[in-house]
Amino acid sequence: MANISQKITFKASPQDIYGLLTNEKKFAEITDASAKIDARVGGTFLVWNDYATGKFSKLIACKDIIQSWRASDWPDGAESKVTITLTAKGDGCMLHFTQTGVPEEFAKDIEQGWQDYYWSLMQKYLEQKNV
């Protein structure tokens, strides 16, 4: 199993970033893909047209998100843990992301996928909306 760690700075508040990751309407708008997100401890999510699924185990508004996460093409029973910590930094937000337990054969694609299908799309959305 592989682990992924990334740090991204956004020109937005932790509240804005938290909302983009936990609000299904905003997430769907950002990604142009279906999203069902029940943002409460024990709530589940199904995003990217059913590609990624999981369950929230910890949510502290505007600060922490911890969830189980798996991709539909992973082997049966494979599940990773995603931890996102948001910290105010100047006039923006530092997002620290870790994902543990990624099946080794998917690690490079998943690592790049967070950059391409989450962080860059969020940056673009924020620039367009002038949040």
Describe it.
- The mean pLDDT is 96.
- With 131 residues, the chain is an alpha+beta fold.
- The chain has three helices and seven strands.
- The longest helix is centred in the last third of the chain and has 23 residues, at 107-129.
- Helix 1 (14-22) packs across helix 2.
Which structural class fits the helix and strand makeup?
alpha+beta
pLDDT < 50 runs, ≥5 residues: none
What would you call the quaternary organization?
Answer: single chain
The amount of beta strand, in percent, is: 35-45%
User: What is the CA-based Rg, rounded?
Assistant: 14 Å
Number of helices: 3
Strand order of the largest sheet: 1-7-6-5-4-3-2
Helix amount, in percent? 25-40%
Summarize the structure.
By secondary structure, the protein is an alpha+beta fold. 31% of the residues lie in helices and 41% in strands. The protein has three helices and seven strands; from the N terminus they run E-H-H-E-E-E-E-E-E-H.
List strands and helices in order, with pairings:
Blueprint: E1 2-10, H1 14-22, H2 24-31, E2 35-37, E3 44-47, E4 52-60, E5 64-71, E6 80-89, E7 92-102, H3 107-129
Helix pairs in contact: 1-2
Provide key terms for this protein.
131 residues, 7-stranded antiparallel β-sheet
